[in-house]
Specification:
- By secondary structure, the chain is an alpha/beta fold.
- It is 45% helix and 18% strand.
- The strands form two sheets. Strands 2-1-5-6-7 form a five-stranded mixed β-sheet, with helices on both faces.
- The longest helix is centred in the last third of the chain and has 19 residues.
Length: 196
């Protein structure tokens, strides 16, 4: 497996807004791996002022634009519920939410933040032909989609990635490493190996 500075990791949630971006931010600050983040959903969805009225954007809509849109809609409400703060963080990391299924880059590790997202990643790999024969470890840790859990999730993902970086032979040690992580954190982890 590649050395610690070469390990490339993608963090994936549904909209590339909260959970994946919190972990992306945390890992980027730690500078232990090359990290990117993505969403797998059809659209980028954020809570609206009513449960049946979410704010919906296409992937690729700049975080700046979404931020301005929410200010226009209801600045006080979106400040109180933390969305403007979240978008402000996001736009300091990258330009816009990205859809995983459109990414051509290959990673060593994919970490998904919920089982439905894991399923979408698996479907995507099944839908295309494996051409490179390069393995990728796909790991799922369920993280609830709220600000507090996203923060906790970022620390958990950070710990897990640090364990992987410090591994002498990740391919052979990963099962044991994930078992140790599960035992320590009391969080179930799903793992499989796919091929690019």
């Amino acid at each position: 497996m590649s050395s610690q500075s070469n390990l490339s990791v993608a963090i994936i949630c549904s909209s590339n807004m909260n959970r994946s971006m919190e972990a992306h931010s945390y890992l980027a600050k730690k500078k232990i791996v090359n990290v990117r983040s993505f969403g797998t959903g059809d659209k980028v969805k954020l809570p609206g002022t009513a449960a049946d009225k979410p704010n919906v954007y296409t992937f690729g809509t700049p975080y700046d634009e979404i931020y301005e849109d929410l200010i226009k809609k209801d600045k006080q409400y979106y400040t109180q519920n933390g969305l403007l703060h979240m978008l402000d963080r996001n736009r300091r990391i990258k330009a816009c939410p990205e859809k995983f299924q459109n990414c051509k880059e290959m990673f060593d590790i994919l970490i998904t933040c919920e089982e439905r997202v894991l399923d979408q990643v698996l479907e995507f790999f099944e839908s295309k032909e494996s051409t490179e024969n390069q393995p990728v470890h796909v790991i799922n840790i369920d993280i609830q989609d709220n600000h507090e859990e996203a923060t906790v999730g970022a620390f958990l993902i950070g710990d897990l990635v640090a364990m992987m970086v410090n591994s002498e032979d990740l391919d052979n040690e990963i099962d044991e490493l994930l078992h140790d992580f599960e035992t320590k954190t009391k969080r179930p982890v799903l793992h499989c190996v796919l091929f690019y």
